[in-house]
Amino acid sequence: MPLRRTVHRLSQQRRSATTSLASAATSSPPDTARPTQGDDGGRPKDYIEAAVRQALVKAFGEAGAAAAPMVTAATKPEFGDYQCNAAMALAKPLNAKPRDIAQQLIDALEVADLCDPPDIAGPGFINLRLKPEYIQSRITAMLEDESRLAIAKTTAPQRIVVDFSSPNIAKEMHVGHLRSTIIGDTLCRVLEFQGHDVLRLNHVGDWGTQFGMLITYLKEEVPQALADGDGGEGSITAGEVDIGDLVEFYKKAKERFDGDASFKERSRAEVVRLQAGDPDVLRAWRLLCDLSRREFQVIYDILGVKLEERGESFYNSMLGGVIEELREGGLLQESEGAQVVFIEGAKNRDDSAQALIVQKTDGGYMYSTTDLAAVKQRATQERADRVLYVTDSGQASHFDQVFQVARRSGLAPPSLQLQHVPFGLVQGEDGKKFKTRSGDTVKLKDLLDEAVRIAAEDMEKRLAEEGRGMGEEERAVARKVGLGAVKYADLSMNRESNYRFSYAKMLSLQGNTAPYMMYAYARIQGIRRRATTSTPISTSDPPRIVLEHPAELTLARTLLRLPEVLTELERDLYPNRLCEYLFDLSQRFNQFYEGCPVNAAATDELRASRVALCSVTAATIKLSLGLLGIDVVEKL
């Protein structure tokens, strides 16, 4: 009987015993029900944790039910695959030696269908090692399902809103938008892969005083920019104004606004007309938004990022209602003519109470008001379970305040999870703010174009050494390498850290870079092509997986870690952990390839097994890079 069926049968036989145990222990947590190995979705850690919870209840009653399973990945391969530290934490409550507790826990632990017999190390650590048969069965399942690698979707899907990118109308996207855009996109990809219902929102800055200022300037100085040449509402017209022109107009309008009181007054009057829905002002506003939106889309198409735009203007009609709800809830207070909510547990530097301003003295609303309206809309209309805000770390205090007020006012129900996902700055190689030589902010499109140019130049040199030239296929590869390098360099860093932008480092074929990972994939594909010429591999009738050499077993164990890496990323939202996994996997593959000949394997069975390991490794790299928004190349 095939291993997977055998294990599933054993699990079925034991299910009744474990179920009765869980029901007998009334103090046990509700999630003690343990999945059968055949249904573990490639996440043995979840299975082991559930088994440990049941063993804790069985061995120690109420004290065990209150204890955490404390199952982690083993710190060293010689310790096995997982380590349970629960005995250490129970020593004081049970007034017993940790090793004695560990032995009692092992005696009650039922993981024989998944693991070799556990052993105790040190003062009371329990080491668990997956059975080779289980590892073989999982590798076979991954081989049969290269698109998902037999990773099950979540059994508890959530509605998740991810708020990211968020450029401003009438401004070009710059390097500062890079991190929000690609971090947000990666989180969406992972959450979608895990089976969640994800709404990708682009909270564009498309409302406010700046529009009155810009429209006033264009009407007075460049009226042709707002001309409706073809008579169609919202058309970009005769003057063929591009985003560069618009940015320059914005700078000049800001200068006028700051230095000309009359211009400032006229600009504010335009804002009032805009908010009141004046048709002419709305048409001008739509023109500006449409022009900016088209330019933003160019960047999103280059990066392969999909978003649904929902700017600040979307929430404009809801702002008055937010103020009323804050007033009815007794939270709204007046401070120096403005309407504010005082923040609990927070003080200013002068020891005064910290306040969140929600309405200015002139009746205008703030970003905070819009964010509160967005929280309510996402909770009530979108029915979100979780909302992620991917912005720079400088906005941490703002979101702390908004989240607190949303909770206290009831705009955010207790069930709604609100999370700020902060990230650090992109710096130049000198560690200072990343700017052009002239001191201007680096435009995102220029940055991406330069990465592609350098990648193409490097490829052209290497091809010239081989006596070949660049064709369309090679240029397409260079484009993937350049764009992938920019993304991976950012995502491989802890998102909360600042990082130094270096084309040389990110385009290197050495180290934890996109080109290195893309080369690893292309190399494995080459190995597969050569091997399958003589030994075809069928995913519908996969070969028996042989894991006799230590490097084979180590590679297989590393391949099995992907589902748990993705679960951790889903929970903690750090994409660099997937990059670290990929780099570790590539190292393990190199060790495997050096120690385990594929084409020169001793037998056909062994060759087929090793080709299968190559196939699963390639599929794992491809899937992982895809979740990072990076395309693979078959040859490099």
From TrEMBL:
Keywords: Aminoacyl-tRNA synthetase, ATP-binding, Cytoplasm, Ligase, Nucleotide-binding, Protein biosynthesis. The keyword Nucleotidyltransferase does not apply. Residues 1-12 have a biased composition (Basic residues). It comes from Tribonema minus. One of its GO terms (molecular function) is arginine-tRNA ligase activity. This is arginine--tRNA ligase. One of its GO terms (cellular component) is cytoplasm. Residues 517-636 form the DALR anticodon binding domain. It is an enzyme of class 6 (ligase). InterPro entries: aa-tRNA-synth_I_CS (IPR001412), Arg-tRNA-ligase (IPR001278), Arg-tRNA-synth_N (IPR005148), Arg-tRNA-synth_N_sf (IPR036695), ArgRS_core (IPR035684), DALR_anticod-bd (IPR008909), Rossmann-like_a/b/a_fold (IPR014729), tRNAsynth_Ia_anticodon-bd (IPR009080). Monomer. GO terms for biological process: arginyl-tRNA aminoacylation.
